[in-house]
Amino acid sequence: MKKIQTPLTDEVIESLRAGDQVLLTGIVYTARDAAHKRFMEALDRGEELPIPIKGQVIYYVGPAPAKPGMPIGSAGPTTSGRMDPYAPRLIELGLKGMIGKGPRKEPVIEAMKKYKAVYFTAVGGAGAIIARSIKSSKVVAYEDLGPEAVRELYVEDLPLIVSIDAWGGDLHKEGPSKYRRE
Amino acid sequence: MREIEFQEIVEKVAHLCMEANYRIGEDVLEALRKAREKEESPVGRYILDIIIKNNEIANKENMPICQDTGFAVFFVDVGEDVRVKGGSLRDAIFEGVRKGYREGYLRKSIVDDPVFDRKNTRDNTPPVIHWRIVPGDRIHIVFAPKGGGSENMSEVRMLTPAQGIEGVKNFVLERVERSGGNPCPPIVVGVGIGGTFEYAAILAKRAVLRPIGSKNPDPRYAEVEEELLERINKLGIGPMGLGGTVTALAVHIETFPCHIASLPCAVNIQCHAARHKEITI
Questions:
Q1: Which of A66, A98, B184, B275 gets the most CB atoms within 10 Å of its CB?
Q2: Would the CB atoms of A79 and B152 count as touching at under 8 Å?
Q3: ipTM of predicted assembly, 2 dp
């Protein structure tokens, strides 16, 4: 099991291969459908994004509310494919990692190869166990979006699987073809 | 005519919302443990270990199994000889959802308008309620929170009678294969055959709620359930779609008579967090 830290360097990214199990520590930002839409609108207007993007990792999640005394509620990944139309533009701006679930489309994978980025799968529906790795959480943008607001999380040993690497290795394709019978 | 207090229903529905989201059924847990034994992929086994552990943590700490605590879907059977005192049953269920999602720290995932506004209603209402009037003086409520990821992979198709059971099988397999890892496999596949366009979908949703391990009472459909489960698990999709020998935990088929010209077929995909709880009042 590899331990890695954010912000991600090209050296770390180049060492990762699809299928690696990793534990991620450091700051990650949350954003899903509605926040990505606003990111694009901001960029179209020539504005800065509300979060730093270079070297950073975005986690596609809309967490459940935190109980008193807890930093966050259950916080498993949402389906990444819905962010595919937005991801290449963010990768071009320096985004280095994405955390979600499910496959990515070709333009995302191409951008990942070109600009060196990696895609991690978190275990979907494992919201309670993932919440244990999240040590702090604060809303940093778009508070009005409720569960879709952009949060800055500090995570410790978040369990992830590298499912698409910066070399084009894609476990979403290679895994199923390996175990397909008939 | 039996009477039930409005507030009693509110409390019970609120409790149901929390329980269903915190505690997975023993049948699902057992199926996941068996899947862990059967899975050949090391990544798949690692994922199943996390899923099983997650269910244990959620149960122990009263936390939602998944942050997507779903659209609040209800199947309500109302006895002809029972009425609600102090308000309507509909309003009591709405209020129960508000209370359960607020006090249970469950995520509010509903937007008020599907296309233009998409503003969060902030209390997870409205629920979707499927009503049936039945004999007796009881109210039976099934609550099944439905996550967006797996619901998005569901589909209704109007087959022709000539396509028959092969048409059904091909549709189910195609739908599951095309879904890949998106609906958080291992999944439960609910198949509704017959009825009308909308009724097939309701049958498929009811099929998802059947206990894992149960069979369709008609041996012909039970055989198709078994065959489809085997063929789905040979697709190689595996846990979270990263490859493996366990893609589905169960295939359940429910049927209904249909029109001479039709063969409606619906596939409702359910993620491994196959949550539902019921109560009779």
A1: B184
A2: yes
A3: 0.93
